[in-house]
């Protein structure tokens, strides 16, 4: 059975097909069109795969999964880091129509359980080297949440759950098939602003368009040598144009486990990398490294640096071509769909000062006032959008969807933007209750709910505080029944099993939380309070 999701209204789907955005091919086409190509597609440390080998590996795994009864309409929970198996697994799942949630490697029990409860996976693929999967206790917990769970395959396992063994099985005569192009290919993770992390169904048709158009704008081709040093499971790394875009263009992807200069600079030199994608804090670290090491010679092959995921300051933007010796491209995207790019031949001023313009002529983007009415060009408002690759609803979340979309199906991203005469967008703020910690998104409500489960915590509010490196960090204001120390709060959250980046960077114990006239916690005041307190301490 196909996975239920909110479809595009029929007239829109017809138009997107007519205009050639939707081509009714499954995402497996990205790899299969290169099935006889012996060029190197993927490098992970000492291991490398040609297109032919990558496709064959995905075929073998798809057959192994098919043999175990997995089929179109099933779902999977996948948690792998930046390793070759992440790419192989994704294609194998696409080949047999199984739609995965690709959790980030930094995710812990709370996140994975929330995803499992929503998609009820029939399959789990993870890594024994992740603390959650070091033994089988957590797998039993997942099985309790998902009665359908029948297959578990683990990287770095040499027992009966070995992913490597599954990858080595012969194909035999197993027949598998991808899901139809207008069905769900996989779920992307929402940055979120609610208590439970939301999932975004993405179809083959919409996602394939976003990849092809990104490849066109960023001019990826068979000479592209892309370093993937941001989490490969993230939408940015997968599709803007990301590693899927590189594969579409028949270039080469080199994986790195993190964006640190000590790891990446030698890789860039050794692999003659010409394009990579970063978040702003990593850019700061790269600039600092070049300054300290006194040369950008290691980066000589690098031509294009994409920066996105969080606001890039104009000052930092201007330093990129000067100090790193490459061109900058700003990318303002979201896992829900819409992606904006500065164009490669744009005037440098535009590249330094805007977050680009929508990639598709049929992306409808406007700024709304508080009543949801369109504002004139140049005015600050809420980003509203719909288009051929922007979703129409979070998975199984009718109530939240009712708030996130207007009556005409426009999605409200929660970003505050200004759209210029020329259609270029500047991101100037945010309305959603979320903290953007250097590209990693924290839904305040999710952390607050976890804090409130502590026996001594009466009220909790998580707000952002400015940070030079990360852009934003998080501060938890807590009203307790007794004095609680910051370390206790963090230890508590860690024990509950939440990703490290969600742990409050700072904890403020207060007697009460300020309220707005309508009785909601006044987060604006809290943000001011913490800013003033930190200023006074300097
Ligand atoms: C300011 N804020 C930005 C930018 C994202 C490409 C690039 C990024 C993402 C991503 C992505 C920003 N300046 N340049 O999926 O395909 C903030 C906005 C946005 C939210 C989306 C892609 N680029 N943001 O970051 O789903 O607030 O996707 O709504 O993780 O990140 O976050 P996410």
Q: Overview of this structure, please?
A:
This protein is of the alpha/beta class and 538 residues long. The protein has 3 domains: 49-177, Rossmann fold; 256-430, Rossmann fold (3-Layer(aba) Sandwich); 434-537, ANL, C-terminal domain (GMP Synthetase, Chain A, domain 3). 33% of the residues lie in helices and 25% in strands. Strands 2-1-10-9-11-12-13-14-15 form a 9-stranded mixed β-sheet, with helices on both faces. Strands 4-3-5-6 form a 4-stranded parallel β-sheet, sandwiched between helices. The protein has a 4-stranded antiparallel β-sheet with strand order 16-17-18-19, with no helix packed on it. Strand 18 (411-419) and strand 19 (425-430) form a beta hairpin. The longest helix has 17 residues, at 51-67. The termini are far apart. The mean pLDDT is 97. The structure holds ligand J2J.
Which helices and strands, and how do they pair?
Elements: H1 10-18, H2 29-32, E1 40-44, E2 47-50, H3 51-67, E3 75-79, H4 84-95, E4 99-103, H5 109-119, E5 123-127, H6 137-145, E6 151-155, H7 163-168, E7 184-189, E8 199-203, H8 204-218, E9 225-228, H9 235-239, H10 242-249, E10 252-255, H11 261-271, E11 275-278, H12 280-293, E12 304-308, H13 314-324, E13 327-334, E14 337-341, H14 348-353, E15 357-358, E16 364-368, E17 380-386, H15 398-404, E18 411-419, E19 425-430, E20 434-437, E21 440-443, H16 444-452, E22 457-467, E23 471-480, H17 486-496, E24 506-509, H18 523-537
Parallel strand pairs: 1-10, 3-4, 3-5, 5-6, 9-10, 9-11, 11-12, 12-13, 23-24
Antiparallel strand pairs: 1-2, 7-8, 13-14, 14-15, 16-17, 17-18, 18-19, 20-21, 22-23
Helix pairs in contact: 3-4, 5-6, 8-10, 12-13
This protein binds ligand J2J.
